[in-house]
């Protein structure tokens, strides 16, 4: 067992006293010195977590499960939609960091069929559930901001286009299936391409696409995309930024960044997000 700094220092002083001929003194070792103590930080002391549940009316007995991270003095409430293949647990650290660094409450649910939520994941329910989440969680007097990462951009943009939110943030998002389908083509090895054809379900082509809906969103909008995105091409971000109809909009087109390493809680990414939150919060104030 490793000795703590307090124990080592005490034993060192005792040895020095013996070598110098001084009278031996008793050193009291406390539990706090000997046993490692949990560091207190904003994760445990400032941000509290409330469990959320949203019944699914089309699936009796099943529900969406989520969390609300409560900041002690929030500037806004951020509704967060994560990317495909993720769960709330996998995004826990990011959600806490966003709450802390942006000074916002964060509302997030496991998508149907993932994590703790019931049901089956479908494009139609992604969009419909986003509206129901807003209707249940919007807090009077607190601006509502919406963020979608990757696949989460679909419900995020849909929500912003259909409810009076005060800000929209799309990170590594999908503009349209036509621009994103190159990712699916990569699933077929080069040697099989002459013999294999991909046939996509009609749901992928249904309108409106996110690029259509973002053109109706007037709230302050931030689009962030890495030009080295290996999953969704940077052209998706280009199109979303181009078609945004917001009077205040910013496009953070980040050099050398891929799909999974956008700096959402540090560096230039965090600077852009803070600017967006400030603008959205200001725009939400009555004139």
Automatic annotation (TrEMBL):
Alphabetically ordered keywords of this record: Hydrolase, Signal
Gene3D superfamilies: alpha/beta hydrolase
Domain of life: Bacteria
AB hydrolase-1 domain segment(s): 77-202
Keyword hit for Cell inner membrane: no
Molecular function (Gene Ontology), one example: hydrolase activity
SUPFAM superfamilies noted in UniProt: alpha/beta-Hydrolases
Listed name of the protein: Alpha/beta fold hydrolase
Organism (species): Inhella gelatinilytica
């Amino acid at each position: 067992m490793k000795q703590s700094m307090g124990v080592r220092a005490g034993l060192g002083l005792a040895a020095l006293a013996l070598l110098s001929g001084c009278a031996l003194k008793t050193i009291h070792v406390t539990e706090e010195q000997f046993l490692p103590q949990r560091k207190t930080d904003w994760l445990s002391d400032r941000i509290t977590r409330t469990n959320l549940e949203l019944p699914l009316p089309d699936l009796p007995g099943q529900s969406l499960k989520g969390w609300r991270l409560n900041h002690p003095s929030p500037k806004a409430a951020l509704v967060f939609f994560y990317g495909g293949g993720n769960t709330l647990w996998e995004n826990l650290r990011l959600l806490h960091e966003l709450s802390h660094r942006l000074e916002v409450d964060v509302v997030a649910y496991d998508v149907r069929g993932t994590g703790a939520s019931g049901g089956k994941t479908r494009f139609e329910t992604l969009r419909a559930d986003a509206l129901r989440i807003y209707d249940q969680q919007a807090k009077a007097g607190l601006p509502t901001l919406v963020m979608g990462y990757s696949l989460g951009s679909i419900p995020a943009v849909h929500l912003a286009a259909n409810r009076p939110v005060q800000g929209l943030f799309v990170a590594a998002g999908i503009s349209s299936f036509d621009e994103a389908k190159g990712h699916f083509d990569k699933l077929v090895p080069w040697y099989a391409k002459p013999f294999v054809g991909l046939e996509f379900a009609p749901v992928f082509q249904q309108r409106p696409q996110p690029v259509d809906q973002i053109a109706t969103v007037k709230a302050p909008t931030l689009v962030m995309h890495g030009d080295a995105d290996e999953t969704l091409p940077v052209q998706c971000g280009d199109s979303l930024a181009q078609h945004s109809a917001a009077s205040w909009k910013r496009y953070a087109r980040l050099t050398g960044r891929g799909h999974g390493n956008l700096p959402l809680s540090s560096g230039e990414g965090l600077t852009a997000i803070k600017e967006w939150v400030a603008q959205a919060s200001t725009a939400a104030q009555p004139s």
